[in-house]
Amino acid sequence: MRGLVRRTPKDKIIDRFLTLYVLTKASKQTQKLGKTQLQKIMFLSEWRMISQKMKGLNYNYIKFEFGPYSPELQEDMDRFAKLGATRSSTLKPTDKGFNIIDDFASVIEANKPFFAILDRYTRSCTSVELQDLLDKVYALRHPIRRNMTIEETPLKTPLLYPIDESKAEETFAINKNDLEDLAMSLDQKIVKMIEEGMADLKTGRMVSHKELFGSV
Fold first, then answer.
1. Cβ atoms of 66 and 134 closer than 8 Å
2. DSSP 3-state of 171
3. Which strands, in side-by-side order, build the sheet including 67-69?
């Protein structure tokens, strides 16, 4: 079986946007979304996309203690908290998190089939108890090795990896400008710089060219 697939910068931006979208949707359906539950929502969503030859989510998954697990997805959860898009102690989106999703409503509108899949698994996975969800996922056949279930799969075995764009029949659509704007919205350093700049404008302090761009 092949190993983990390296994601492109574009893949990472799209993954974070889709994950943040799920968090905003889930927050309206449950008050106790946990990291394990989110891992399963994203795993099942990506599996469905790949089975339909859709390139949307691009996380790699391995078999871990509680089933399918993506270290990259965990990193993005941590990133959201540092960005201020989710509350540090939970996965609940903040106003900033909701605003990011609202600002890119046109991207959501242009990719309805992808978001329909996310909506489906967000609803189904948040409507059952965690153990029931885990039992259902464990009982599924390995996405690639069909001769074993996920429960029978050895620990640390790859379970799912991104579909190659050349094999996809439908690819997540986002233009260059939206992609760049989204990248800035999801980048902690850029967001902090903008917020500090806005604060300086309110206090009347002008930021010099050197402070913004360094010496040239």
1. yes
2. strand
3. 67-69, 61-64, 158-160
Nearest by Cα to 185 from 14, 71, 4: 14
Q: If you search the block for the tokens 């850029």, which residue do you land on?
A: 190
Report yes or no on 216 lying in a domain.
no
Which range of residues forms the domain containing residue 132? 9-173
Q: Is residue 45 part of a domain?
A: yes
State the total domains in the chain: 1
Q: Which helix (H) or strand (E) holds 10?
A: helix 9-27
* Residue 201 tokens, joined: 């404008």
In sequence order, the β-bridge partners of residue 69 are 62
**183 assigned to some structural domain:** no
The per-residue pLDDT for range 25-75, each reduced to its tens digit, is 999 999 889 999 999 999 999 999 999 999 999 999 999 999 999 999 999
Cβ-contact 179, 10 below 8 angstroms: yes
Whether the pTM exceeds 0.85: the reply is yes
Long-range CB contacts for residues 44-50, cutoff 8 Å, separation at least 24: 44/121, 44/125, 44/137, 45/18, 45/117, 45/118, 45/120, 45/121, 46/160, 47/143, 47/160, 48/117, 48/120, 48/121, 49/114, 49/117, 49/163, 50/143, 50/160, 50/162, 50/163
Long-range contacts of 146-152 (CB under 8 A, 24+ apart): 150/63, 150/67, 150/68, 151/67
Does residue 178 fall inside a structural domain? no
Query: What are the tokens at 29?
Result: 């359906």
The residues pairing with 124 across neighbouring beta strands, listed in sequence order, are none
